[in-house]
From TrEMBL:
Keyword Protein biosynthesis among UniProt keywords: no
Keywords annotated in UniProt: Repeat
Domain Nephrocystin 3-like N-terminal, first and last residues per copy: 41-207
InterPro entries on file: NPHP3-like_N (IPR056884), P-loop_NTPase (IPR027417)
Signal peptide: none
Gene3D superfamilies found in the cross-reference section: P-loop containing nucleotide triphosphate hydrolases (3.40.50.300)
Record's protein name: Nephrocystin 3-like N-terminal domain-containing protein
Species assigned in the record: Roridomyces roridus
UniProt keyword Repeat present: yes
Amino acid sequence: MNVSHTTNVGESGLDILLRAVSLDAMHNSAERPADPSCHPGTRSAILEELDKSSFEQPSDSLILWLHGCAGIGKSAIAQQFAASCHERGQLGGSFFFKRGSASRGTWRNLLPTLAYQLTVAFPTLGPRMQLTVETDKLVLGKAMHHQLEKLLVQPFRRPSQLAFRPILVIDGLDECEDRGAQTTLIRALVDILRSGDAPVHILICSRSEPHLRELFEAPENSDVCRGLEIRADHAALADIRRYLAEGFSRVQKIHTARGMLLDDGWPGENTIEHLVKKSSGTFIYVSTILRYVDDEYSHPADRLDAVLSLDPISLTPLDDLYTQILSSIPNKSTLLRVL
């Protein structure tokens, strides 16, 4: 794919930035279905840790790497944290990568999207950002290190009136299709923050990929980076238990109002505990179950029974669940043709 940037004479710097903004990459964008925020009352310990790391002045963790396995809830936490920072006026910008997306699958739109959000959130940076881009109107077509210098360093070079460090949230870095760009970005951000040229805090969320772990956990980067792993510990299992209990309660009330027979307290503590253990601490497993059970054209108890009938000792419970969901779809000939 060839990317070209066309600039009109007299076009303002902010107009140039705006054309390169990925609207569907921001936490509050209407261009995409929003990533789910954390269920109320869950992930409180991690969110408190993020607040602490981001608001301490000065901080020795200018880059906080939140990492964990697929489906454990990193994007939900990033979504919740970005929304909270936005409400407090602390959010500089957010970008949610998505593999396969034209605007969210590469690094090309990352820096213009963050830069434009910074100028909106902190108007004192606007004139500086505009002047920077107007001085080099081809900046968006240049290499990453050049864009970082122009969009993240130069606007902060003059004495700043900001009373705190803006917070940038970058989610799903491992979903950026260019693996080399992932490592280049980390190295560049470490150098910039270490020098003090860009007074920001950055939260980066990703899977625990080896090439990312090598950089974030390198001893020479410990003065800037700190890692926080999301584990399937007792707190995570308690959060999932609460999420399931409240989710099934909601399904029970909705479908009972539609005339379906479901006992109070359905499906029972034993069933919930079984699903908690099967989840292995991943929210994607239980959230998929709730979406599958909460089908307006099916009886929730029948669908839940189908889930419970799956192999209880399988080592691939999520694969089993997806197989069950696909097998229950009507018009299988159409399904197979689409697949």
